[in-house]
Hints:
Elements: E1 9-17, H1 22-30, E2 35-40, E3 47-53, H2 56-67, E4 72-79
Antiparallel strand pairs: 1-3, 1-4, 2-3
Amino acid sequence: MSANDKQSICAYILINIKLGFTEDVLAKLKKIPGITSVAVITGEYDVVVRLETDSLEEMHDRTLDIHVIDGIIETTTSIIQKEFT
């Protein structure tokens, strides 16, 4: 990798949402810079988002943006160490 190549820091964020808040939360998540995917899922969590940032500091700032969305109960953030496509 050359000095000009920039590698993103990516994470999956699993989110639990209060009943009745899903549509509002989804709309707000879609506006957060760096979120590349939003999916409603089944199971323990309600939504999973993929977040891509240029630094851990920016990752922290974006997760704080998510935490303050009204209707979000809980989040779990998992930073991707290695990904296979």
